[in-house]
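Example 4.3 (complexes with small molecules)
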Amino acid sequence: MVITKIPANKRSLPADAYTHVVCLPEVKKAMLAASGWPAPFSPPSPPVYEIKSAGRKYSNGLGAFAVADIKPGDLIMQERALLITSRHVALPKGDKGRLREIFLEQCWAEMGHFHRKTMQALHNCYGSDAEPLRGIVDTNALPADTLPGPTDIGGIYSAVFNHLARINHSCSPNVRYRWDIETFSGQVHAFQPIKAGEQLFISYCDLEYPRGLRQEELRKLYRFDCACPSCVLPRYQGRLSDWRRLLIIEQAFQDLSKTDADLRAWATNPRLPDPMLVDAAEIWYGWMMQERVLNSVLLPTVLERLCKAYCALEDEGNARKYARAAAAYEKALEGSDSGWGIVAASPEKTSWWGLRVRARRQQAPSI
Ligand SMILES: C[S@@+](CC[C@H](N)C(=O)[O-])C[C@H]1O[C@@H](n2cnc3c(N)ncnc32)[C@H](O)[C@@H]1O
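Answer. The structure with S-adenosylmethionine bound is encoded below.
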């Protein structure tokens, strides 16, 4: 492992615009060789969030709050990390754990005043149970999925940010965090409409897990008892929520094999009932929105099917609605709307438009 600062040419940059990275030598070499990387970025200005006290429920800690109304898909926060470490040295016990601490200590020794002061101010849920720097990293790290260079040995990295680290957890989150390799930054997008004053929540655990497992993991890794709206549901409703989450993950595996062929077969065969494809997809979409579980396989599949099906039915309102939802989701997951904004503006220009309506007309007996 080696320690480096990215962007390499940081002379003209403010202190919060560069990151200390603990990585493999091959990754450092690839990062320094990547021309024009990382790309600059501009977070929303003026900022649409503020960091302030979140109150007793969050151990009198801080949280991030919207200061303006925010639409699904909007970028809320974007920030370079203070520190990125490889998870290859992030094993919890034994020599490898100690190895990680040695790298963190070396990194600390190289950090300037801004980075040290900011890191020290972050929350440490481990108290005296861990070495302070390690406790801070483990409390606040978010995934940085890829860095330039050989991905097979680089593995997954953890990033510690200044502001992004203040976002609290909910099992029904309203924003989504993503690592943006192009700009070497963390982004937070809304995937629900958010009102000014509302707190922003990401998820620290796998949302498809049932409540008991989620709570166990949060207690173990972040040392708090989750009291989010999903975790305080009365018993019966809590079970329903667990059940929906389980079905979402099961359906995601099944939907992997779906193609456009069955959608086209339905669209061009008027003898098949209209609700056949639409109703099931609406149920899955409704459950994912209700649980705020954005399954990365099922949600895009369902949104695409709904948009195409409503285009085939020439139902402009619903076609636009699902295209807008797909645009927001893609922005939150991929950083761009993947062309869904164009579909939302003119669904009648897609090749699916009116397919079913024309098939019905052709089938109708001529008088
Ligand atoms: C990454 S920090 C989040 C920001 C933190 N509240 C602060 O003041 O810096 C993670 C810690 O915040 C607290 N936290 C986050 N989400 C919480 C929640 N839903 N309920 C209670 N505490 C929470 C826990 O102490 C957790 O270890």
